[in-house]
Amino acid sequence: MTIREIRKILAAALLTDGKHQNVTIHSACGSDMMSDVLAFAKNQPVLLTGLINPQVVRTAEMMDIRCIVFVRGKKPEADLVRLAQACGIELLSTSFRMYTACGLLYSHGLLEGPVPNE
Amino acid sequence: MNEVLLLHYEIRGGDFIHAGESSGHVKNILKRLGFHPNLIRRTAIAMYEGEINMVIHAGGGTADVKITPEQIEIRLADHGPGIKNLDLAMREGYSTASDSVRELGFGAGMGLPNMKKYADDLKIRTAVGKGTTVSILTKVSRNQG
Fold first, then answer.
1. What's residue B102's pLDDT?
2. In this predicted model, what pLDDT tens digit does every residue of A55-98 receive, in sequence order?
3. Above 90 in pLDDT, residue A42?
4. CA of B107, closest CA in chain A: separation in Å?
């Protein structure tokens, strides 16, 4: 599934320049706890979160996450958007709540990735 | 690369806007040098957790990174309050972080366990009232994960 398809499924607004929308995503995770993302996230996932502070982007950068979806219609400050663009991370904002947004992506075939062995 | 690359960073305490910049910089350098993606990620996450800890708990500190063709050594040093009970701090779920830190998505008690998980060697020297030094080693020879 591409980021462009995720955007369509979640009826999401694109907050970044959209240069990487054709990147293919194989798994996703949803969390408001960045420590858990750092512990358990898989290879190149989408991160769905309700947090809009810069550490969300920093966490995504460390984990090679290519797309962050802000749920509940949240929109971050311009500085965060610039940081994400600099890191090559696409930002989406959907009005769906976390549970629904995750469910929609899951039902369209975007599953959780394999559990890492470390 | 054949030579040794040394990097130094000053990390400001309580600065949650710039926290993680040093780890991001190291990650980009490792990418440019062509290290294995898994090694890069392990190193970046372990350093980032340490950097965040210094910003949250220690009032900032310094990070010194030594990159060689075989391994990456990261030394994070602070003059913060130190860790009272290191065994407890190493347990998943134990945290002394404030509610304001939890609102940022941290303080789940995963920082030190994550560092241990991603590093090939982790050494922590701490003294209450004096500070903490965390030494993280990641090795090129462990390519997987």
1. 85
2. 999 999 999 999 999 999 999 999 999 999 999 999 999 999 99
3. no
4. 7
A-B Cβ pairs (cutoff 8 Å, strict): 80
The residue ranges of every structural domain in chain B are: 5-139
**Is residue A65, in this structure, part of any structural domain at all?**
yes
Average the pLDDT over A42-51 and give the result.
Answer: 86
B57 or B110: which leads in pLDDT: B57
Distance CA A84, CA A16 (A): 8
Rounded distance between C-alpha atoms, residue A35 and residue A51, angstroms = 13
Instruction: Please state the ipTM of this predicted complex.
Output: 0.86
Contact A35 B106 (CB under 8 A): yes
Number of domains chain A contains? 1
By a Cβ cutoff of 8 Å, what residues of chain A touch chain B?
Answer: 31-39, 49, 51, 53-56, 58-59, 61-64, 79, 87, 116-118
Does the residue A113 lie in any domain? Answer: no
The mean per-residue pLDDT over the stretch B58-76 comes to 96
**E strand spans, B1-143:** 5-12, 60-67, 71-78, 121-127, 131-139
Domain hosting A8: range is: 3-107
Q: Nearest to residue A62, comparing CAs of B97, B70, B52, B56? A: B52
CB-CB neighbors (< 8 A) of A116 in chain B: 145
CATH topology of domain B5-139: Heat Shock Protein 90 (3.30.565)
Residue B143 — pLDDT band, cuts 50, 70, 90? low
Cα of A116 to nearest chain B Cα, Å: 7
Residue indicated by tokens 């939890």: B102
**How many CA atoms, within 13 angstroms, populate the side-chain half-sphere of residue A64?**
19
Does the pLDDT value for residue B90 go beyond 90? Answer: no
